[in-house]
């Protein structure tokens, strides 16, 4: 059974907060590649930022998502990913029309159920790492809602509840009772 679980969906919908709750409970977690790239690029005045060069940003996110998967020391326990290779491939496809990265997504699978955070305007905040307005987040969400099923995944939209309740929901849905 594949125990690599994706948390994806609308920017600003609470993915990172949910990931932190799962980590607090003892589960292995992988932070969002995009945020790590943005921090590194901002620290070095680099140009691979989504609002500067989306294509280069997406290429780096693909490489980082692949490295994250390869670097996991033990693949037997549950691992929760804040976004995934699929999200990065979707960004590259949007930026360039190049769908070749989708082949990587077909070869490097995650758990069949993907959990999406829905648009949640009441908690959406723009910041130094998230510079797109809610309209951009909604367009991204729509692309992911379309793409994940096309790649054979089942989408489950998370309820708009606390991070603890969301974690309970996710764990019950995949049948995970305990951490690694």
User: How far do the termini sit from each other?
Assistant: 14 Å
pLDDT under 50 segments (min length 5)?
none
Order of the strands making up the biggest sheet? 2-3-1-4-5
Q: CATH homologous superfamily?
A: P-loop containing nucleotide triphosphate hydrolases
Radius of gyration, whole Å: 15 Å
Helix/strand-derived class? Answer: alpha/beta
Which fold name is given in CATH as the topology?
Rossmann fold
Number of self-contained structural domains: 1
Shape: globular
Polypeptide structure, described:
It is a single chain. The protein is α/β, with parallel strands linked by helices and 180 residues long. 48% of the residues lie in helices and 12% in strands. The chain contains seven helices and five strands, in the order E-H-E-H-H-E-H-H-E-H-E-H. A five-stranded parallel sheet has the order 2-3-1-4-5, sandwiched between helices. Helix 1 crosses helix 7 (163-174), helix 4 (85-96) packs antiparallel against helix 5 and helix 4 crosses helix 6 (134-150). The radius of gyration is 15 Å and the shape is globular. The two termini are 14 Å apart.
Summarize this, please?
This protein is α/β, with parallel strands linked by helices and 180 residues long. The protein has helices spanning 15-24, 33-43, 54-70, 85-96, 101-107, 134-150, 163-174, and strands at residues 4-9, 28-30, 79-82, 113-117, 154-157. 48% of the residues lie in helices and 12% in strands.
